[in-house]
């Protein structure tokens, strides 16, 4: 991995906090993407691109699709970012040859751009919703959701308490730069350096979700009720994040930290009040269309599968739903598998129209869409 030397730059800017520096990098990156069409590929389409690269004579349609994407990326017409879901699915490959090839493709087309992790994005969307509700001037969500590949699973900043505070801060910002510029192929080299790379374990959550679906099938008498049940469930899942967000905003607003006693006293009440406010806005159809997109999309997709008695949850659903939460609110095009395409466009949801994101699942149609952008 190439060494990135920004020590002198940060030494001359001791007042800037590492988190603020990281946020500034994200804003700058998002502005660089802003003039391009953003195309999100699920892992299935990345695999098709890899086949076109490794075996172009057999996979002629995939090779044609690859040529168009490379041309659009090189000319700065389109950006092809990934997400943490892409990262983990790609890392699930056991064949080192195809794994390395996919990493090279992602580096070439994404130019290192990824969405921030789903947990960070949900926190960001909740905070943006709350501040906008108060009428405060804010960055657009689209200006804060993009980061670099090494940060797809979240922000990590090491600390060395034995150093002087200013030296520790300098080290942290230099570390951010080093990781910010790392390619996926370089990260993979590190993972494979001892020859013992093990793909992440596969999740068996689909069976549990399907069992829960059938056990509680009759609890909701309408799709709206099913959707609201999911809204409440997702909010509860991220209840601690909501409480952390409320504490952060209080401390920033008042310029002082809450005591541990105050946190314990008010934490549960903060979670309850925020949950009720969000739930009731959805219930009364008062939630702004562009607010809390990850919460809305996740709840909609889970509700749609639960509502349809013929469907069960699939092992890939969690990643597929994650792809959708990245693509629909923040991208112009989403190329994905047929099942998810159908779920998103069905009349109950209409999420493609809600977020003005064009979805395609057939390779020939995706190729045609990109060909139109070449003009």
What features would you describe in this structure?
This protein is mostly helical and 375 residues long. The chain is 61% helix and 5% strand. It is built from 18 helices and six strands. It has helices spanning 7-11, 18-33, 43-54, 60-74, 84-90, 96-110, 118-133, 165-180, 184-191, 205-215, 223-237, 239-254, 260-283, 293-307, 317-330, 338-345, 351-354, 363-373, and strands at residues 37-41, 78-79, 113-115, 146-148, 333-335, 358-360. It has a four-stranded parallel sheet with strand order 2-1-5-6, with helices on both faces. Strands 3-4 form a two-stranded antiparallel ribbon. It is globular and about 65 Å long. The mean pLDDT is 88.
Topology diagram in text:
Elements: H1 7-11, H2 18-33, E1 37-41, H3 43-54, H4 60-74, E2 78-79, H5 84-90, H6 96-110, E3 113-115, H7 118-133, E4 146-148, H8 165-180, H9 184-191, H10 205-215, H11 223-237, H12 239-254, H13 260-283, H14 293-307, H15 317-330, E5 333-335, H16 338-345, H17 351-354, E6 358-360, H18 363-373
Parallel strand pairs: 1-2, 1-5, 5-6
Antiparallel strand pairs: 3-4
Helix pairs in contact: 3-4, 3-6, 4-18, 5-15, 7-12, 11-13, 11-14, 12-13, 14-15
Return Rg in Å: 22 Å
**Assembly category:** single chain
Quick one: biggest sheet? 4 strands, parallel
Rounded to the nearest angstrom, the distance between the terminal CA atoms is 37 Å
> Would you list the SSEs in sequence order as H and E?
HHEHHEHHEHEHHHHHHHHEHHEH
Number of helices: 18
Binned, the helix content reads 55-70%
Report the portion of residues in β strands: 5-15%
Q: Give the overall shape.
A: globular
Q: Would you tell me the overall average pLDDT? A: 88
Spatial strand arrangement across the major sheet? 2-1-5-6
> Unreliable runs, pLDDT <50, ≥5 residues?
none
Structural class category: mainly alpha
Number of strands: 6
